[in-house]
Amino acid sequence: MFNFEHRFEILTPTQATWSLASRGAAAGAPATEARPEPQRLAETVQGRVAIVTGGATGLGRATALEFAQRGVAVAINYVELPGRDVAAQALLTETAIRALGVPVYCARCDVRSHDEVEAFVAKVRERLGGVHYLVNNAGVTHDGALWRLEPEAWQEVLDTNVTGAFNCIQLVAQQMRAQRYGKIVNVASHQAFRPGFGIANYAASKAGLIGLTKAAAVDLGPSNVNVNAVAPGFVKTELLSTLPREVLERAEHESVLGRVAEPEDVARVIAFLCSEAARHITGQVIVVDGGLTLAS
Predict the structure, then answer these.
(1) β-strand pairing of 104-108 with 73-78
(2) How far apart are CA 106 and CA 33, in angstroms?
(3) How far apart are CA 38 and CA 16, in angstroms?
C-alpha cells in the first residue's frame, strides 16, 4: 500500500454499500455548465467502480487486486489467446477479488470491437452501479523486424493497443462527464521512448496511446475527468518469461535500481493516479521503469 499523506481510505466489506445516491448530476448536462469544485482529498472510495481491461493476468490482475484491496468494486475483461487458458486465469482472478469482499464482474470482451465494449460497459453499470475508474491495460505484441513485419501483425497491435483504448475511453466518457468525475489511466511503455529492435508496431502503438492520453485529458478535463498514463519498463509477468534470458539480464543491468518491476510496483502507481491525492495531475506520463530509460 501507498504511504501518501492523502491516500484512499481502505474500506471493510461491510462499509461498502455501493449506493447510487450520490453519483452526481444527471446525464445530458450542457457542455457550458460551470466546472465542479475539486473533490475533497478525504473522500473515500465507497461505492466506486473500476474497469481494468485485460485484468485476468499479469499487470492487469495486480491492478484489479490493488483496487479491490482498497474497497473498490472491479470489472475485468479478457480474450482467449493461443496456447493459454485465459478464461481459467480470469476465473482465478475473479475469485481472488471476490474473496476480498468487494463486488466483481468478469466477462469476455475484445476491446477492438466497439460493440463488444459498449455491451461490456453497459453490463458493468448494470451489475456494479457505474464506472468511476478506467485502466486501459489490454495489449498485445507481435514482434518482428520492420522489413519482415506482416501487415496483419501491424494492424492487430495498433487495433488492440490504441483503438481498443479509444473504444473504452469513448464508452465510459458519457457517464464520467454526466457525473462530473472520473479517472482514466492508460498503460503505455518505456519502449514508446526507447524502442528495441523488432517492435516497430508495439512502439508506435504505445507512442500513439500517449498521444491519445494527452488529447483525452484536454477533452475531458472540463468535466473533472483526469486522464494519465503509466509507462512501465520490464515487468515480471508471463510475457516477460517468454523473452530470452539475456534480454532480462540486460534490463536488470541497465536499470538504475538493478531490477525489473514486480506487477504491484506499477499497480500502486495506477491506483495513486486514481486517488484524490492525484486530483491535479492530468495529461501526464509517469515512467515506472527503475531508471531504465536513464541508461545511455
Answers:
(1) parallel
(2) 35
(3) 23
Query: Can you point out the beta strands (E) in 103-152?
Result: 104-108, 133-136
The arithmetic mean of pLDDT across residues 47-74, rounded, is: 96
What kind and span of H or E run contains 231?
strand 225-232
Task: State the Cα–Cα distance between residues 73 and 17, nearest whole angstrom.
Answer: 10
Q: Per residue in 158-213, pLDDT tens?
A: 999 999 999 999 999 999 999 999 999 999 999 999 998 999 999 999 999 999 99
- Give how far Cα 218 sits from Cα of 50, 111, 187, 204, 228, Å: 22, 23, 18, 22, 11
The Cα angle at residue 214 between residues 210 and 220, in degrees rounded to 5: 135
Looking at residue 52, the DSSP 8-state letter turns out to be E
Give Cα 200 distance to the centre of its chain. 22
Look up residue 186 and give its three cell numbers. Answer: 492508460
Angle, CA of 142, 162 and 91, to the nearest 5°:
75
Predicted structure pTM score: 0.83
| Grid coordinates given for 285 | 506520463
d(CA 149, CA 141): 12
Contact 185, 274 (CB under 8 A): yes
DSSP result, 16-50: -----TT--SPTT--TTSPPPPPPPTT---TT-EE
> 82 is written with which cell numbers?
493461443
In 135-262, alpha helices (H): 151-158, 164-179, 200-220, 245-254
Unique residue bearing C-alpha cell 486530483: 279
Q: Is the separation of the CB atoms in 271 and 63 below 8 Å?
A: yes
Task: Report, as residue numbers or ranges, the catalytic residues.
Answer: 202
Q: How far apart are CA 101 and CA 185, in angstroms?
A: 24
C-alpha cell at 96: 481472488
